[in-house]
Amino acid sequence: MTEPEGVIKYRLDHHWSDPPEPALIHSLNAWRGLLRTLGLIGQDPARYGGIGFGNLSRRLEGSCGARAPAFLISGTRTGHLARLEPKHYVWVRECDTKHNRILAEGPIHPSSEALTHGAIYAAAPELIYVFHAHCPTIWRHARALGVALSATDVPYGTPAMATEVRRLLAAAEVRRSGALAMGGHEDGVISFGSSAAAAGCVMLSLLARALELTDRR
Ligand SMILES: [Zn+2]
What we know:
The chain has a single domain, classed as Class II aldolase/adducin N-terminal domain (L-fuculose-1-phosphate Aldolase, 3-Layer(aba) Sandwich). Helix content is about 30%, strand content about 20%. It contains six helices and nine strands. Helix 1 runs parallel beside helix 6 (about 195-215) and helix 2 (about 115-125) packs parallel to helix 4 (about 160-170). The protein is globular, with a radius of gyration of 16 Å. Zinc ion binds near residues 5, 53, 113, 156 and 188.
């Protein structure tokens, strides 16, 4: 295991406030539930030192063109929860990857991977949903599946990872592929899309293709 998930490495400026509207979390919860049943999000004593893993976000409507897009993201250390409620989500109002700073507003601190989600939204205005999961099968076959990989010496949740993400997403085919794998973050995979279904289906399709490769061995 490289390093435990869930350690916030950015400077957080947090304003406590009420939870987001319940209507905003239904699509995230639906896909989170599905990814949990497949073991791509969750908590397992046998994996990653028992630390919860995986997080999801959606861009704030109307912040497509913004220099620092705002987004709603699952809170830190919520991977172990079977179902999230509005109180487990938080707004990232500003994500300054250059200065490793996040301005957040809500009832919980943002996921430790919020900087990476923010870098994806800043790099690709067309993307509305970002799902981060841990899947050994996809991760092991990332190259064979043609999934873009971040450098192995780049740790999660850092400005360096934000730079890597920007580098990878500069390629139109990576943006179109809807996914990337994190070389320096064990089993770490990110899918993204212009809808929750687009981001979710990319992850499921990658899993099926990876299982096919495994089956051929
Ligand atoms: Zn992770």
